[in-house]
Amino acid sequence: MIMKNMPLSIKNVTHWDKSCLKQSEQDIIVERPLVVQINGQPYAVIMRTPGDEEAHIVGFCLVEGLIDHRDDFKSISIITNEVSEIAEVTIQPHRDTIVQGILAQKEYIHQTSSAIIPKKMVHHPHLKSNLSNHQIEIQSVIDCINHLSHNQPIRQKTFASHAVAIYSQHVQLLSVKEDAGRHNAFDKAIGQIVLNGVLKDACFCILSSRVSYDLMIKASRSGIAHVFSISRPTSLAIEMAAKLNITLACLSKDGGLFVYSGQNHLTIHSN
Fold this sequence. Notes:
Structural class: alpha/beta
Order of helices and strands: EEEEHEEHHHEHHEEHEHEHEEE
Number of helices: 9
Mean pLDDT: 84
Shape: elongated
Oligomer: single chain
C-alpha cells in the first residue's frame, strides 16, 4: 500500500545520461530535525524522515533506557515549526531517578532551539576557492564511483560496510575507509588525510551511502568541494549543497549522473 502524504520533496535535477545533459524533476526523501526534550530539558536532535513521530519517540526513549513501558510516559506533545518538529516528553515521576541519571551521564546535550538548524547550516569554513571552482570531468567521477567497491575488502566479505574515498583535483586517491556506519567511514577517511598531511589536497569524495545534511557539513568543514554518491541525497542535503556552494551528484540507473548542485563545476569530455 502506498502511503498518503509521503515525506517526499520535488527537486530540480540535471541528468547526464551518457549522451547529453537534460533538466527534470525528481522525488527526494525529506530530512528534517526532530528535537527531543525530556521533562523540560534538552536531550537530542534526531535527523530523520518526517512521519510517525510518536512511535519514533516511544522507540527512542525505550532504547535510551528512559522508559520501560508505555505507562512510563505522562505525555508526549509534538510541535511543528518551519524548520523542525519538537517533541516535548514528560515521563512519570516514578522514573525521575533513572531519567536524571541518564541525563547526568550524557556527554553532551544538543541545543533544542529551532534556530539550531539554520545556524548549523551557515557555520562552516570557507571552501578552498581553487578547489570549489575546479572543473571535474563527469566520466572521471563515474569511473571513481564504479571503482569504489574495489577498495572495499570488508564489503567484499560481509556486504555490510559503507565506504568513503577522497580524491585530489588530479583524481589521485588520497584516502579510502570502510565502516559499518556511513558517518564513521567519512570521519576515518578525513582523519587519514589529516594524519598524512594532505588535507589541503582534498578536492572531491565518493560515498557508498545516501548523502544527508550532516555529511555535507563534514565535507564543508574538511574543505571538500564536490560530493558524489551511489545513492540519492536527502532534501536537506541538496539545500545544504546549494548554500555551501558544494557540487552534489549521484549515480543514475543508466550509468549516468544526477546533478543536484554545482552543475557548472562539471564538464563533459569531448572526443
